[in-house]
Amino acid sequence: MGREFLDIFEEWADSYDETVEGHDIQYKEVFRGYESILTKVTERSEGTVWEFGSGTGNLTIKLLKKGLEVIGIEPSKEMRAIFTKKLGDSIQITDGDFLSYNIEKKPDTIVSTYAFHHLTDDEKALAFQQYSNVLSKGGKIVFADTIYESTEAYKAGIKDAKDQGFTDLAADLIREHYTTIPALTKMAEAAGFNVTFTKCNSFVWLMEAIKQ
């Protein structure tokens, strides 16, 4: 359920905001256009929003400025502490993950950035089914994440990272569960969603899935 990567979340907590600002050369392209990516997710969000992997609250801030009701879901204790320090105690954030959560109010939109790849493809498919059960017709999933157009493109991405000497990035790409547009399309459609993808940079695609 992604919780096997909790140690990484804890390590990244203090440096995450600096990394997304482009200060780590290995991840500069991964986070290129970061603010624009968050804005695109926000623009497609409406109503009550479940935000998985709230992290340090960067997307949450934009969602709140739009006037949306946000319920944050974050498994990392360190990330939740930074989130609360940044946004205060008035915003609800709960310990949970993409498949395990306890939220009474149903969402109109489910969002996440840079996190869905922590699930295996089987877990991703299960997540789509769960979200289909809680979203009404017209409800949305809006995720921005590293996604590949094909398995070959994924393998080429690992090779490119190694060739550039980006050992940490290459290790991340190998260790975590990155998937492809065809695979995600199949999962989403099987759960009753119409899905589209918009490219944001060399790594990140914006996925918008609308419940039919």
From TrEMBL:
Asked if the record carries the keyword Methyltransferase, the reply is: yes
Keywords assigned by UniProt, alphabetized: Methyltransferase, S-adenosyl-L-methionine, Transferase
- Kindly give the InterPro entries that the UniProt entry links to this protein: SAM-dependent_MTases_sf, Uncharacterised_MeTfrase_YrrT
Query: Which residues take part in binding S-adenosyl-L-methionine?
Result: 53, 74, 97
In short, the EC number is 2.1.1.-
Function, in words: Could be a S-adenosyl-L-methionine-dependent methyltransferase.
- Kindly give the PANTHER family that the UniProt entry links to this protein: TRANS-ACONITATE 2-METHYLTRANSFERASE-RELATED
Task: Specify the protein name.
Answer: Uncharacterized methyltransferase WAK64_01545
Q: Please give the organism.
A: Bacillus spongiae
